[in-house]
Design brief:
Blueprint lengths: L14 H6 L10 E8 L6 E2 L7 E4 L3 H11 L3 E7 L16 H12 L5 E5 L13 E3 L5 E3 L1 H18 L3 E4 L6 H11 L6 E8 L6 H6 L20 H13 L3 E5 L5 H10 L4 E5 L1 H12 L5 H15 L3 E4 L2 H7 L3
Parallel strand pairs: 1-3, 1-4, 1-12, 4-5, 5-8, 8-9, 9-10, 10-11, 11-12
Antiparallel strand pairs: 2-3, 6-7
Length: 329
């Protein structure tokens, strides 16, 4: 009905009414905290491009797990920085590497905390790419998709054996979800879930992460395996393929420039859907706040709510602890 009978402002008159009709909610359990464990340090090492984020020594894993559980976070996801790197990322398959050790410590300290692990070799290769390299006949180099699958499968089993609840392949190799699922099942880890980075774009917003994880490509870029930012229909194809291969959950990465993609994937699947609020998105808010341009807490919460509103069931975000504090967690 027209004005003056129709007055939407009536439902904005008090904080109680606002809360009563709020369409999108956010709680600490919707947030997953990314963590970087470094095998060669004894104290936290701040990441210059990501204020508030540090590389952590493995000995900090237990206390970090307890803090995440105390805050009521939905979980954590672990990335590893090894002592040594080589062309094949061999250190990523070391049972005594930073991720397996941190997983074991975290699950011992906070058994109820959901611990996820990133499954990719870029942090472990000396060239920084997400797979095993292959030289073409013309002398150029490409990532060998099928050879990389075997390494990813072995890494996933290693993380499961350490105690991970969820493994999350982020490499964007074709067929990796199916290969990892088969490896887990054959190794008696059929209960371990796979969160697939199903829709991962070749984005400019990953820059600070590459400092944090020490994984910037030493040549070229990752557009040969990560998705073209111009493509949305392709996202549905990628998500459907991973679902068919046995993914238990799907992810869209990055989040803010791809809210339309989150919405499209949400409408196309019944699987739980996550989005990664990536390092560049985090760093932009920190930089704007430092320059006095924005109210950091309000902007942070608005960003996180927008990702949930687009259709994400959960959010991987470096804001997780600060957001939990703002939410009373």
């Amino acid at each position: 009905m027209p004005f003056p009978i129709s007055r939407p402002r009536r439902l904005r008159a008090t904080p109680g009414l606002l809360a009563l009709v709020r369409e999108t909610t956010l709680s600490p359990r919707d947030l997953i905290l990314p963590l970087f464990f470094h095998a060669a340090i004894d104290a936290p090492r701040p990441v210059a491009s990501m204020p508030g984020v540090s590389q952590l020594p493995v000995k900090a894993a237990a206390s970090t797990a307890k803090e995440a559980a105390r805050r009521g976070l939905g979980g954590v996801i672990l990335f590893g920085l090894p002592k040594t790197k080589d062309p094949r990322g061999s250190s990523g398959l070391d049972p005594d590497g930073p991720v397996p050790r941190a997983v074991a410590e975290m699950k011992s300290a906070a058994p109820q905390l959901v611990v996820m692990t990133d499954v990719c070799v870029d942090e472990y290769t000396d060239h920084g790419h997400c797979g095993i390299l292959h030289e073409r006949k013309d002398g150029t180099t490409e990532v060998d998709n099928d050879a990389t699958l075997e390494v990813l499968a072995e890494m996933a089993v290693l993380h499961a054996r350490a105690g991970a609840d969820v493994v999350a392949p982020s490499d964007m190799m074709d067929g990796r979800v199916g290969r990892i699922r088969r490896a887990l099942d054959e190794s008696s880890f059929s209960s371990i879930a796979i969160l697939s980075y199903a829709v991962k774009y070749a984005s400019a917003f990953y820059g600070p992460f590459r400092e944090a994880a020490d994984c910037a490509p030493q040549f070229g870029d990752r557009s040969g395996y990560q998705m073209d930012p111009a493509n949305a229909r392709e996202a549905l194809r990628e998500a459907r393929l991973d679902e068919d291969e046995g993914a238990d959950m799907l992810m869209v990465k990055p989040a803010l420039a791809y809210l339309d993609v989150i919405r499209a994937v949400r409408a196309d699947t019944t699987l739980p859907l996550f989005a990664y609020n990536v390092s560049g998105e985090y760093a932009m808010l920190k930089a704007a706040a430092a320059a006095g341009m924005i109210d950091y807490t309000r902007a942070m919460m608005e960003v996180l709510v927008s990702i949930r509103r687009a259709g994400a069931d959960g959010i991987l975000t470096y804001h997780a602890v600060e957001a939990a504090e703002a939410l009373g967690g």
